[in-house]
Amino acid sequence: MSSFLGVTCLRNEGPYVLDWLAHHLAAGFDHMLVLTHDCDDGSAELLQALSADERVTHLPFDYTAEKSVQWQALNIAKIHPLVKSADWVMFFDCDEYLNLPEPYTRLKDLVPTMPDAEAIAFPWRLFGSAGQEAFGDAPVVERFTQAAPRHIHYPLANLYKTLFRPKSFRQLGVHRPRNKKDSVPRWYVSSGQPLPERVAANDKAISLYGLLDADAPIAYLNHYSVRSAQEFLLKAQRGLPNHMDRAIDLSYWAERNFNAVTDDSISRMAPATALMRDRLHERPDVAARYDACVAEHQRRIAVLLEDLDNIRMIWRLGLLAGSTPPPRARAQRYIQNQIKAMQYNG
């Protein structure tokens, strides 16, 4: 039977990591490898407690400014015995949740439907703030059920992460693994649709915009990249793992805060997640360390809201209650104009 390994890199995600791990272990990952750096919210201590479970490995590392955090984590992960021995690996973030469509309940049910696959692309589904301002510690998938429409004309909303066979590739990657020289592995979308060879061969092709079958059931990665306004404020302070120099601001919020449709389909996975979360929560020190992380995030938010600029930021986020999905013609014009500008500027 195939083994499935989930790999992530995080910093200061204490209130979320317990539920995230529970969700993906319940969804069929056999083991989760969590790399952390510079945590000061209690995340590292919580993960050490969680690593008492044989399915969780916590690997702290020291970040240097030479490369992005995620690429440093990938270079560490690629030589780890768990990665080397796994049949399938996925590198993804703590705000991305696998959402399997019916009738599948675990990865071992879905993957065999693509028996010759060496890589499977799981497209994002962007979830917005649902108009929520306050931080909360209930599961993210229960708090936020407003999303972008499935067929949104927006390349960013069609990015993906990849479940792949590491032996078929040269290197791990943030969105997709790197191909071996002169080799094009067999790629599929998580719906079972084969990925065109031109996309499979291009390591830089990280969006499925215009490629997805309009009607096929798809296993998405629900992407909760903004959460509530207060949580977004904390995220802005923390920065992005793969783009430490990129601001998390109103532009970032506008590009991701889609609340156009209701989608609670992931709730069918909630019972299995709850059982797994209870098992993890019972491990020694996990409950206390989780509570400490929640309290620390609440404390940090309270401190941030003593600052006038942050008060104004929360207000502005509330005014931007939801982004409007663009019509096809406008999206295509936007893409064409960008291509022309890049060609003009060399």
Summary?
GO terms for molecular function: glycosyltransferase activity. This protein is an alpha/beta fold and 346 residues long. The chain has helices spanning 14-26, 43-50, 69-77, 81-85, 107-110, 140-143, 197-200, 229-238, 250-256, 270-281, 286-304, 308-319, 328-344, and strands at residues 4-10, 31-36, 56-60, 88-91, 96-99, 119-126, 146-147, 160-164, 169-171, 178-179, 187-189, 220-223, 261-262.
Architecture overview:
Its main location: membrane. It is found in: Membrane. This is Glycosyltransferase family 2 protein. GO terms for molecular function: glycosyltransferase activity. By secondary structure, this protein is α/β, with parallel strands linked by helices. About 35% of the residues lie in helices and about 15% in strands. It has helices at about 15-25, 45-50, 70-75, 80-85, 105-110, 140-145, 195-200, 230-240, 250-255, 270-280, 285-305, 310-320, 330-345; strands spanning about 5-10, 30-35, 55-60, 90, 95-100, 120-125, 145, 160-165, 170, 180, 185-190, 220-225, 260. Strands 1, 2, 3, 4, 5, 6, 8, 11 and 12 form a nine-stranded mixed β-sheet that branches. Strands 7-13 form a two-stranded antiparallel sheet. α1 (about 15-25) crosses α10. The longest helix has 19 residues, at about 285-305. The mean pLDDT is about 95.
